[in-house]
């Protein structure tokens, strides 16, 4: 490795948009609406949950554009937090990114890839476990998940051009397939019976109470239920900020990053809303868990929460399972490529600030942080084996929202502390749009803190554990500097 090797400017607007959209679309859109249906019990409020998530995501993307134009450097959000606040806040974001957010998401997406591979290849079965000890589990699903992470890591160590080719191909493929799903669903699978049933309860939210009784939701109870439902919609819409991590490799980043953030989030939001329109025109939202039919189970109790499979089963019959499995395999593989490609750039930036292993701050001969990619691969693979990645992600959703709020609040701080820094793009609708995001996201954080405290406290603990680690790194850096004198 050579210290004079630089990042290669290879990502144009299309490539950047593909990273935004491709990193967002995984398996969530095909599954999480089942859980949201159980939480809200109303087609109208289901759509509202997705619409609010899309609105918040676009608001955040429009706001991040200003920061991306100001600091077009590798590391993205880590750099923005460091500049707006201090190195400690930036480190806590990077620490949580490596420990759970990025690597945990990579593990979760890889496991979804492996589990749906099992539909096509029965030998890759969740039921087969060769070794188990506590949280540790090892079997064919784990092997396939880890192999997919290792393959994508190897591709991305070969250079940004190889990584972007994979990203462009898979993002284009899954957008086309998602459009095909929407067209088939609306054109051929729509069910007048389901439409009529859903129309009658469109704005009548309910939750199942004790003894199976339906409890109408209104007032604060409805707001609380909507806030909890937002966990699924926001997680399915997350990772849009990954393009900011690769700013050092984007051609004309001051223009292309803000534009790609807007285009990517807008495209995905529209696709997500249309996919949910398919669900409520094909299946009744409410159902019975014991029912033997797809329509009888409804959206709430679709088998294994696989709504997309249930939605097109009327057109493709038993082949729907295979078709959707293949679709999700393509979607998750492309999603993980974007996550793997982007994440290592954050650790690279931290290492160059003396806050991570020095070797992570070096680029290989192909102009990419190979050691950071490998380290990320190893830790994500360990999370696959641990079986705890799902819990960890639940824990940090709270923290993720806090970092987003802090970052967008940073726009106001930087306007005051760095008024002369060039801003080729200024946050759209400032100050109204950023304030709307901060207020709504803070409300969701408050609801999660009150109603899902089992998840919020562990998330905060994970973040706060980074504080002593930060000071240890700073001490180590200081000792190194003293030795060089």
List keywords for this structure.
485 residues, mainly alpha, Amino acid/polyamine transporter I, two-stranded antiparallel sheet, two-stranded antiparallel ribbon, 19 helices, 4 strands, 71% helix, globular
Provide the CATH architecture: Up-down Bundle
Name the CATH homologous superfamily: Amino acid/polyamine transporter I
Spans with pLDDT under 50 lasting ≥5 residues?
none
List the helices and strands in order.
Answer: HHHHHEEHHHEEHHHHHHHHHHH
Biggest sheet overview: 2 strands, antiparallel
Radius of gyration: 22 Å
Q: Which class best fits the helix and strand makeup?
A: mainly alpha
What is the number of strand segments? 4
Mean pLDDT: 90
CATH class: Mainly Alpha
**How many helices in DSSP terms?**
19
Number of domains: 1
Query: What is the helical fraction, as a range of percent?
Result: over 70%
Write the layout of secondary structure elements.
Elements (H helix, E strand, L loop, with lengths): L12 H12 L8 H8 L2 H28 L6 H8 L2 H34 L10 E3 L2 E3 L1 H18 L2 H28 L4 H9 L5 E3 L5 E3 L2 H18 L5 H4 L7 H30 L11 H4 L9 H10 L2 H34 L17 H17 L2 H29 L14 H20 L1 H12 L1 H19 L1
Antiparallel strand pairs: 1-2, 3-4
Helix pairs in contact: 1-7, 1-11, 1-14, 2-3, 2-9, 3-9, 3-11, 3-16, 3-17, 4-5, 4-16, 5-6, 5-14, 5-15, 5-16, 6-7, 6-14, 6-15, 7-11, 7-14, 9-17, 11-13, 13-14, 14-15, 16-17, 16-18, 17-18
């Amino acid at each position: 490795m050579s210290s004079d090797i630089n990042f290669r400017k290879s990502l144009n607007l299309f490539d950047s948009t593909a990273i935004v959209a491709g990193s967002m679309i995984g398996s969530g859109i095909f599954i999480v609406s089942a859980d949201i249906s159980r939480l809200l019990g109303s087609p109208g409020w289901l759509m509202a949950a997705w619409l609010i998530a899309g609105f918040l995501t676009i608001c955040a993307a429009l706001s991040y554009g200003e920061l991306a134009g100001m600091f077009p450097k590798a590391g993205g959000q880590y750099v923005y937090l460091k500049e707006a606040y201090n190195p400690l806040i930036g480190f806590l974001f990077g620490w949580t990114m490596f420990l759970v957010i990025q690597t945990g998401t990579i593990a979760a997406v890889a496991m979804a890839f492996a589990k749906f591979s099992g539909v096509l290849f029965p030998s890759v079965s969740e039921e087969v476990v060769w070794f188990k000890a506590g949280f540790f589990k090892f079997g064919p699903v784990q092997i396939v998940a880890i192999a997919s992470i290792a393959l994508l890591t190897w591709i991305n160590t070969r250079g940004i051009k190889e990584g972007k080719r994979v990203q462009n191909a898979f993002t284009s493929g899954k957008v086309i397939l998602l459009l095909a799903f929407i067209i088939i669903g609306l054109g051929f699978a729509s069910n007048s019976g389901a439409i009529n049933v859903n129309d009658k309860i469109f704005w009548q939210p309910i939750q199942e109470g004790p003894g199976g009784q339906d409890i109408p939701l209104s007032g604060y109870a409805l707001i609380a239920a909507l806030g909890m439902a937002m966990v699924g919609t926001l997680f399915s819409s997350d990772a849009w900020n990954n393009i900011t991590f690769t700013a050092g490799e984007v051609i004309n980043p001051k223009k292309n990053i803000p534009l790609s953030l807007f285009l990517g989030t807008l495209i995905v939001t529209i696709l997500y809303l249309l996919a949910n329109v398919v669900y409520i025109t094909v299946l009744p939202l409410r159902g019975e868990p014991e029912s033997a039919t797809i329509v009888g189970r409804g959206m709430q109790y679709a088998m294994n929460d696989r709504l997309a499979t249930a939605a097109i089963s009327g057109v493709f019959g038993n082949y729907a399972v295979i078709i959707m499995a293949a679709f999700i395999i393509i979607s998750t593989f492309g999603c993980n490529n974007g996550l793997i490609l982007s994440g290592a750039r954050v650790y690279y930036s931290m290492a160059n600030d003396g806050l991570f292993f020095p070797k992570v701050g070096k680029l290989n001969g192909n102009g990419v942080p190979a050691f950071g990619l490998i380290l990320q691969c190893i830790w994500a693979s360990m999370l696959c084996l641990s079986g705890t990645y799902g819990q960890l992600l639940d824990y940090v959703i709270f923290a993720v929202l806090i970092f987003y709020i802090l970052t967008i609040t940073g726009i106001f701080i930087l306007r005051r502390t760095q008024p002369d820094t060039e801003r080729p793009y200024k946050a759209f609708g400032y100050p109204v749009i950023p304030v709307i995001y901060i207020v709504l996201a803070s409300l969701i954080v408050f609801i999660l803190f009150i109603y899902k405290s089992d998840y919020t406290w562990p998330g905060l603990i994970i973040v706060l554990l980074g504080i002593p680690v930060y000071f240890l790194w700073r001490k180590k850096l200081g000792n190194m500097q003293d030795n060089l004198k």
